[in-house]
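Dear colleagues,

I hope this message finds you well. In preparation for our joint manuscript, I am sending the Biotin transporter (Enterocloster alcoholdehydrogenati) sequence together with its predicted structure, so that both groups work from identical material. I would be grateful if you could confirm receipt.
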Amino acid sequence: MNPVSSNPAKKAGAASLFTTREMVLAGMFAAVMAVISQLSIPMPTGVPVTIQVFGVALVGAVLGWRLGLCSMLVYILIGAVGLPVFANFGGGIKSLVGLTGGYIWAWPIMAALCGIQPGLKSKKADLGARILLALVGLAAVEIIGGLQWAALSGDMTLGAVFAYSLVAFIPKDIVITVIAVVISGPFRKMIARGI
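The corresponding structure tokens are as follows:
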């Protein structure tokens, strides 16, 4: 369920895919993602330690699956055309086809999974189910990202990539993904009220 689905403008413009308000929200959250992406620690492996999955999870959990997916696609597109929105002010197609590109490609999947809100029809979302879906999204990011990293690395096997990720990234990513889902509720309510 989308937090902006009850918007009267949505009913008036039912033929359009997104309302103007939804497009603005998608763009705003893509900009938030661009800021969060700059908080990173470069590593000798070429894959920086970041809190980007926190941003991805928050975007999806706040906006819902449809708008969260759209926001992440907007973010990827503005990075693909060369704007420096990826980690360490990276941008352009080279970022998407380089070592870290697989992680970026998987972010729309994670955002969509984080945006699924089981139990909302009964007025109370099932937090446990939401966290589980978010962690499935995180697993997709780690797998797709790890596969591309191993394929392009030349000196790291797939097993080595996943072993390194298990130490350097995954524990931190699990914690910040859960935090993003847990804190998303008040933001969803603010957006639903039009604030």
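For the figure legend, we might mention the following. The domain at 8-192 is CATH 1.10.1760.20 (Arp2/3 complex 21 kDa subunit ARPC3). The mean pLDDT is 88.

With kind regards,
E.M.
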